[in-house]
Structure formats: structure tokens, C-alpha cells
Write a structure and sequence with these properties.
Nuclear Transport Factor 2, Chain: A, 7 strands, 150 residues, 7-stranded mixed β-sheet, alpha+beta
Length: 150
């Protein structure tokens, strides 16, 4: 039996990222990427923010399997698919714990829902930075519509 080796990411043991730049990237990550409904505009916004081979780790609450999305184009396509699935939902920053930075790790809190219930879903992204750009990020749900916690 042969095992397949999964692609991996490597991180620096002594990161030297600019915290202010990280905060700006995370703000644009929510507003100009996840908040953008046009896939072409989103793609342009992603170029200066993410490495070409960015990896997005998604939790598996709905499918039962965790998803791993690799590459800017695939991240863009996944965001578009989710927006098409929930066209009346809007993402905004969650002012409770909005952005935190430590070394090369950033955390940005956000909320998602229709205008009448903008915090139907609360979550955060953990973003790993390398050379001023997002190398990988993870989604963690904090509040889901049924009130459950993952």
C-alpha cells in the first residue's frame, strides 16, 4: 500500500511581518475579497494580498468533510460559489475582536447574513502571512444559525 503525500506549507520560525501592513491586508481581505460580488474585481483585489498558491482550510460542518482550497483562482471560485448560493447575504467586520496580530499570524472576525440579521453567522479567519501576503488561512465558525458551536 502506498500513501500519497499531501502538499504542505512551511512557515518561518522567526517571522518578521509588518503588523500594520497585516492589519491593512486583513481589512481588504474582508471588504475587497469576501465582500466583493464581482469575480473579476475580486481576482484583481486578491493579487496583491495573497500568494498565488494560497491555501484556504474550511471547516466541514455542512459537508461532513473539511475542504482544502488551493490557489488564488480556486479561492476566488469558491467565494463566488458561496455568494451565488446565498445572494442576499453580506459580510462585514465583527467589531467584537475585529483584528489581532501576533508575529506572522493575523485573526480577523466577521459576521455574515441578510440585512435583517447581519450576524446570523459569526466567524473568524486565521491568516498566515509570508513576505507581506497571505500564504494560508483557516475559517473558524463561532456562531451558526442553529446556535451550535463547531
Amino acid at each position: 500500500m502506498t500513501s500519497q503525500r499531501q502538499p504542505s506549507i512551511s512557515i518561518s520560525a522567526s517571522p518578521s511581518e509588518d503588523p500594520e501592513k497585516m492589519r491593512k491586508v486583513m481589512k481588504r481581505h474582508i471588504e475587497n475579497v469576501f465582500g466583493e460580488s464581482d469575480d473579476i474585481a475580486r481576482s484583481k483585489a486578491m493579487e496583491p494580498l495573497y500568494h498565488e498558491d494560497v491555501t484556504w482550510f474550511q471547516p466541514g460542518e455542512y459537508s461532513g468533510e473539511h475542504a482544502i482550497i488551493r490557489g488564488r483562482d480556486n479561492v476566488n471560485a469558491t467565494i463566488q460559489k458561496e455568494q451565488n448560493q446565498f445572494p442576499e447575504f453580506y459580510i462585514t467586520h465583527d467589531n467584537e475582536g475585529y483584528i489581532a496580530v501576533t508575529q506572522n499570524l493575523g485573526i480577523v472576525h466577521w459576521k455574515l447574513g441578510p440585512h435583517e440579521q447581519p450576524d446570523m453567522i459569526k466567524a473568524c479567519h486565521y491568516l498566515l502571512f509570508e513576505d507581506g501576503k497571505v500564504k494560508a488561512f483557516w475559517t473558524a465558525h463561532l456562531k451558526m444559525p442553529d446556535g451550535s458551536m463547531p
